[in-house]
Amino acid sequence: MQLYNLLTPEEIQALVQPPIDGAQPLAAPPPGFQGSGQSIRSIRERRGWSCAEAASRTALPPDLLRAWEQGEAAPTLTQLLQLAGGLGVSVDELLLGSQPAPSPDRPPGRLPQGMNSLAERLTYLRTARRLSRSDAAAEMGFSYSELTSYENGYRLPELKAFLALVQFYNVSAHLLLTGSSPAAVPQEPGPERGNSSAADLSTLLDEPLYYRGVPLDPQIKQRISDLLQGYEIAKKQVGPEMQSH
Predict the structure, then answer these.
(1) Residue 214: phi, psi to the nearest 5?
(2) CB–CB of 154/143 below 8 Å?
(3) Mean pLDDT by groups of 10 residues along the chain of 245 residues
(4) Burial tier of 215 (Cβ tally within 10 Å: 0-12, 13-18, 19+)
(5) pLDDT digit string, tens, across residues 152-161
(6) Which end of the chain has the least Cβ crowding within 10 Å, N or C?
């Protein structure tokens, strides 16, 4: 299964820089986000998790998770990815209830393989429709500089702007944000999903792996594989009496 194509290092760095005063302001929710908050809560409860347990599994503050569920604040795009990974659902499922209906006169947006950043995907969708940047920005209600910053990877859109992009290009939110089909999302085991057999770690390395809700990139998985191979070599080089200790 294909790994998520995550944001570029530059896009992530733009988000993790703390504000000068050290405070982390909550993002204002877009209109209709309360429906998404209810979706988040419904998914959590379907897993049988308390808010504290869901926060632990997603590595997100419990108060922040409660604010999203109550529609009092909205996640950033990186937080949205983290939440989706921790809950084992697609971004589309999280946003159920706040995604605007696609424009009926626009064909569904499609993306080729190999686009490794949101900026690349946004540029492709616009040029595939043969739209100038100024025309696309005007139709979506963005300024030219705002759309330019998204397409060049200078900054990430807030959720309200991201939903406008999803609607305008008539594309899956999950596909636009990650580069992967929602159908490829691995399901997180919950009360309704048993895990009756243990999986071999070498097999798991062929599947998407997560750490604190964030997908591991191929380089990290390769390092894990190299460590395991080194372990196997070392194990063969010691005697049976050493292996038993």
Answers:
(1) -110, 130
(2) no
(3) 44 43 56 78 90 90 91 88 89 72 60 84 94 96 95 92 91 88 58 42 61 63 75 62 49
(4) buried
(5) 999 999 988 9
(6) C
Tens digits of per-residue pLDDT, 35-62? 788 889 998 998 899 999 999 888 999 9
Tokens of 3: 């790994």
Cβ atoms 58, 82 nearer than 8 A: yes
Q: Of the candidates 126, 98, 92, which has an alpha carbon nearest to the alpha carbon of residue 111?
A: 126
Asked if residue 45 lies in contact with residue 111, where contact means CB atoms within 8 angstroms, the answer is no
Instruction: Let me know: does 182 contact 94? Beta carbons within 8 Å.
Output: no
Token couple for 100: 């605007």
* Helical axes 51-58 vs 62-69, angle rounded to 10°: 110
SS3 at position 211: strand
31 exposed, middle or buried (CB, 10 Å; 0-12, 13-18, 19+)?
exposed
Give the Cα separation of 193 and 166 in Å (integer).
31
What 3-state DSSP class applies to 98? Answer: coil
Dihedral in degrees, nearest 10, Cα atoms 78, 83, 84, 89: -170
